[in-house]
Amino acid sequence: MARASERHQARLNAGSNGSDGDVDLVRAAPVLARLAFAAWLRATGWTLQTSIAASTRVIRGAANGESPTAIIRDVEQEIRQYARQLLGIESANSDDTAGEAEPVDAEVVEDDRPTLEELREQGRDLLRRSADVYDDDDAHPAYARILQELAPDEARILRLLAREGPQPAVDVRTAGPLAIARSELVAPGLNMIGLAAGIKHNDRLKAYLDNLYRLGLIWFSREPLRDPLEYQVLEAQPEVAEAMEEAGRGKTVRRSIHLTDFGEDFCELVLPEDTAELKAIQRGNRESQKRKKRNRDS
């Protein structure tokens, strides 16, 4: 009888423990579900991030012409790094590597711009010198800098303009019935300055003229010269003829190129006239005048 009671009590105890286990499992189910979802989300995000990074690396390497071996090696290294981050594993040498990073040599660039007080002091000095009747500057202070920014051919051009005066130039534009309302520019500023000045690099003439204009030494006038004969030789040049042919029924618009007042003073003060180069220019100018005269006579 006692043994039967013990077996019955054991079955009761076993049933009670099973119910408690089922209750605990039911209570833990939401937590387990959240953990599973978080793990799935993290793994999915890692997979997507890794795929994008690997694809980007492959495309970039292929565009740069890298070898497939180098690309695969870099992709494998990036995937291992992403896996360590996912699992929370840090590289054993990460601390040492971070601590032993090679120093980067950086050039220290000093700011040599003048301060506001220095600029004001320079301004006060200019005003003091302007009031000094004995302070007489022989040349403009910008002339020294301009000389450093001039090519030898540009000096020849300046001397030509200083001695011979303004030079003719023409624009070639489209003409004809359709050009009444709209005329397109085909070739601007064609001239013979390079030939007349005897420059070495005639293919750089436009750059030379642009630089002289930038420095304030010359200006491009929209007005023609008074003597129309100055344009006859120019308009007969092959460069102008080619532009006219390109324009179809083209026309020329006469312009001129001059020294500025600043440029005239610059030439007078700093460009000497007693040099072999100047004599060569003078000979070239005389020959050019002779050609013009022969063309007029013919």
Question: Can you tell me about this structure?
Answer:
- By secondary structure, this protein is an alpha+beta fold.
- The chain has two domains: 7-89; 143-297, 2-Layer Sandwich (Translation Initiation Factor IF3), CATH 3.30.110.
- Helix content is 62%, strand content 10%.
- The protein has a four-stranded antiparallel β-sheet, sandwiched between helices.
- Helix 1 packs antiparallel against helix 2 (68-87) and helix 6 (152-164) crosses helix 12.
- The protein is elongated.
- Residues 91-99 have low confidence and may be disordered.
CATH topology of the largest domain: Translation Initiation Factor IF3
Average pLDDT works out at 76
| Number of helices, counting only DSSP H or I runs of 4 residues or more | 12
Terminal CA distance: 154 Å
Q: Can you tell me the CATH architecture of the largest domain?
A: 2-Layer Sandwich
How many domains is the backbone divided into?
2
Count the beta strands.
4
CATH structural class of the largest domain: Alpha Beta
What is the helix/strand order?
A: HHHHHHEEHHEHHEHH
- Beta-strand fraction estimate: 5-15%
Structural class, please? alpha+beta
Q: What's the story with the biggest beta sheet?
A: 4 strands, antiparallel
Main β-sheet, spatial strand arrangement: 2-1-4-3
Low-confidence stretches: 91-99
Radius of gyration of CA atoms, rounded to a whole number: 43 Å
The percent of residues in helical segments reads: 55-70%
Question: What general form does the structure show?
Answer: elongated
